[in-house]
Amino acid sequence: MGTRLLGLFLRYVFPSLLVLSRSFLDIDSETLIPRVSALEKVPTYLLAATYAAAAPFLRYDPVLCVSSLSSSMAGITDMLWTMAYDAILQRLSGGEAGGLAILQTILIYLQRPMADNRPAHVDNNSASWFLVATAVQSAFKLGLHMDCRAWPGLPPWEKRLRRRLWWVVYSETIFRSLLAGNPNPIHNDQWDVAVLDDADFVIDGLQIPSEETASRVPALQEPCRFCHAGYDFLFIASLACIANQVLDTFYTYNATRRLANNFSASLAQAAPLLRLLQEWKRSLPRPRQQMRPEPIFDPERHDYFHSRSSAQLKLTFLTLHVLIYRGLLRPLAGHSGSEDAGAGTSVPRPVPGADAALKNAVELIKHTLAFVQRLGAFDCNGLFYSWSCICFSTISSFLLLLLLVQHPSSPAIARELAVVMARWPSTMRQQSALFKQLRLGLYRLDTFLLAGLETTFCFPETVRQALSDEFSPTSSYSQSFPRRNVS
Ligand SMILES: *[C@@H]1O[C@H](CO)[C@@H](O)[C@H](O)[C@H]1NC(C)=O
Ligand SMILES: *[C@@H]1O[C@H](CO)[C@@H](O)[C@H](O)[C@H]1NC(C)=O
Ligand SMILES: *[C@@H]1O[C@H](CO)[C@@H](O)[C@H](O)[C@H]1NC(C)=O
């Protein structure tokens, strides 16, 4: 059963979290299941973490699915996570660096999914930040920040593993810093690991064929892109590099002081970042460019060998856009489209570029609503990273920010945003049945809706009118958004 769980890890988790060495595990090319003898080479705590991470995918292994494990796994998973966590604490308090195995365990533990019974607002941010900081520190201690390709003496599998581990640490750190608002602990001047390429996904003595070509004779088989070409982590890692620039450009302490009141400077900084995101999207291979979730009634639909959903890429891509626009529109808060509308100025001076930026932000938020509405069961295996919940919450706050804090002075824009605002809570409510990741965002949104938007925010008549047009008096929000007696 352990080997089968490891096989599931390699199929469904590894493409997002390439922290194990497959050469080390002696795997079978058709099933990715390792031999039993390989388990003896892996420390117990690391096995515990991999089993726990594989648990949500149990149903994709028919043997496990009918085994007694499938009913007891829910109870065992918490114990496995605790074993992994205790081992981490024990090694750290002993002052040991812990070696690669502890770092691998930490990186898997960081993606521990939210427990079903945990209240949505209990976010373990501070707890996970301690693990991120620990991961960074041990990565530096282990020398992962130095490119080891040219080093003599290391076995090839360890070189590949070290480079992959560095990139996982880097990506995890950057996204969590940006999303949680923590200073980034990895300085650009402190590392030189080149971008991952196909050579980092070699498996000694083994080539895994792609699903489409597996039934051909070996000479005509093509290598599996999830096993040998770094799908999908490679795309996340290149987004992490852009995320790092977004962080440096808009969200450091100095950048905030420099840009928060200067729209033209913010605009100049945002443009290249938006271009980088477009280039990233264009660089994706064809099946990945089509980032819409697939239609629900797809006659071709079958169980894929790997998760093929692009939901994580799309969510991360949209979240970075949102963060760029949030930084860009910051100087306009409260007086959209005009600057220096101080006391005594009756006609606000228009700011060049502000209207276009606001319109683009509205398009972005509409696009994001459509993305969340279209998420389907197919994407459940796709939203893998535990920071996805902060992405949804960031998007949700951005909508409130645009409508209720930026105060669009144009009634047309206010109306468009109000339309999205009216659909957003119900979309999140429905989709959170399938996606626990939405619960944090929904919780924060409901806090405002319950308190009443008008009592929480101070917004002008255009916005109030647009909102009361959209929220019908019979909606559940008529109470949270009281209609003003117009007479
Ligand atoms: C998250 O919080 C829960 C309960 O508050 C705790 O049991 C768990 O260990 C925490 N997770 C981490 C990563 O510390
Ligand atoms: C940040 O701002 C302070 C005060 O203006 C300045 O002294 C410091 O050099 C700035 N830091 C960077 C990295 O530019
Ligand atoms: C805004 O930034 C630009 C470019 O950095 C600078 O030239 C200008 O003086 C700044 N404006 C204000 C009001 O600080």
| Mean pLDDT over the residues | 87
**Shape call:** globular
Helix content: 55-70%
- What portion of the residues fall into strands of 2 or more residues? under 5%
Strand order of the largest sheet: 1-2
Class derived from helix and strand content: mainly alpha
**Cα Rg:** 24 Å
Low-confidence stretches: 336-347, 481-487
The beta-strand count equals: 2
Order of helices and strands: HHHHHHHHHHHHHHHEEHHHHHH
Ligand roster: 2-acetamido-2-deoxy-beta-D-glucopyranose
Largest sheet report: 2 strands, antiparallel
Question: In angstroms, what separates the terminal alpha carbons?
Answer: 71 Å
- Figure out the total of helices: 21
Domain Xylanolytic transcriptional activator regulatory: 128-202
Transmembrane segments: 384-405
Protein name: Xylanolytic transcriptional activator regulatory domain-containing protein
Keywords: Membrane, Nucleus, Signal, Transmembrane, Transmembrane helix
Q: What is the topological layout?
A:
Blueprint lengths: L1 H12 L8 H4 L10 H4 L4 H11 L7 H5 L2 H25 L5 H11 L15 H17 L14 H25 L44 H4 L4 H18 L2 H7 L3 H21 L2 H4 L21 H19 L8 E2 L9 E2 L3 H21 L13 H18 L5 H21 L7 H13 L1 H4 L4 H10 L17
Antiparallel strand pairs: 1-2
Helix pairs in contact: 1-4, 4-6, 4-7, 6-7, 7-8, 7-9, 8-9, 9-11, 11-13, 11-15, 13-15, 15-16, 15-17, 16-17, 16-18, 17-18, 17-19, 18-21
The structure holds 2-acetamido-2-deoxy-beta-D-glucopyranose (3 copies).
The site of one 2-acetamido-2-deoxy-beta-D-glucopyranose has 4 residues, from helix 8.
